[in-house]
Amino acid sequence: MPITTVAKHWVNYVEDISTAHATIIIILTAICFGLVPWFAKELLDSGIASPAIAFYRYILTAILFFPVLRFTNALKKECYWAIFSGACVGLGWVGYVEALKVVPVSSVSVIYMTYPLVTLVASWALIGNVPNKQSIFAGFLILIAAVISFMPNTLSSSAMKALLVAFSAPIAFGLAIAILTDKLHNLSPIQRLAGFSAGASLGLLPLLINLEYDQVIPADPALWSHIIALALATALIPQYLYTTLAPLIGPAKSAMAGSFELPTMFLVGFLIFNESIGTIQILSGVLVLMAILITPAISSNRRVTKFEAGS
After folding, report:
1. ∠180-252-51 over CA atoms, to 5°?
2. Crossing angle, helix 237-258 and helix 168-183, to 10 degrees?
3. Do 165 and 107 contact (CB within 8 A), yes or no?
4. What is the CA radius of gyration of the chain?
């Protein structure tokens, strides 16, 4: 069955999906996103550079879906917004991957999960969506979780610097969520994903030019399976589901439900990389889960553009 046909059936299905079911699916996509450190660290340890890893994550989706973008007068502005959001995330994600070289997965992940607060601020500044008290409180719970990760004597000076660089990821992703949920209503889910992935890939291309051949192309052919899994399981599939459902529940609830990514990252660090989960990590995870539970849905933007095979 062609991918466009699958997409069409899915979009028709979600028109009547409940907020609760949409939130559950976004949580499942967050679990997929939480697997990113697993693939990223494996590729880093094999000598692949951070910009190349980020590029591989997005390029497959960009190639598959870019042809559906239509830069007509009615859609041109939204296409550019989608590309801009992707470029921001692609470049910001490099800082996240770089931090994984010297910082435990759990600590980098806590910093990454500050993006819900960025989403609230960006949505207010760019679109005029004033967050309610519950959303603001939930955002600050996430911020507290990030602050305690910088507690003295827990990280070396080099790790602290790497964590500061890692803030580029939540800033970029928070901005992208605000754009996705409030600026792209006339694009179909595939068009949103196409623009986002194309922007991420294009934004990363200049960084690839200065890399050595073996920093981009794996020496071991078996690593291509990791790259394909990275592209499918942490990008193409969960991102399509996310771009379809996030507008139904609003930027605040989308961001907080997506924060379920953090416990998944903790488990990846613990089970795969033998990292300990201490009191700080547990407290951070509890704060994130509290933020998910107290954030209300925003129903005013509940809209999905019907998928059109020819658009």
Report:
1. 50
2. 100
3. no
4. 18
Three-state SS at 222: coil
Domain that holds residue 213: 60-294
Identify whether 47 is part of a domain: no
Helix, strand, coil in percent for the chain, rounding step 5: 75, 0, 25
Does 8 fall in a domain? no
| Residue whose C-alpha is closest to residue 154's, from 101, 108, 96 | 108
For residues 249 and 280, give the distance between their C-alpha atoms in angstroms, rounded to a whole number: 31
In 3-state terms, what secondary structure has residue 272?
Answer: coil
Q: 158-196: per-residue pLDDT in tens?
A: 777 888 888 899 899 888 888 877 788 888 878 888 999
In a domain, 49, yes or no: no
Between the CA of residue 164 and those of 115, 168, 220, 251, 295, what are the distances in Å? 14, 8, 32, 25, 27
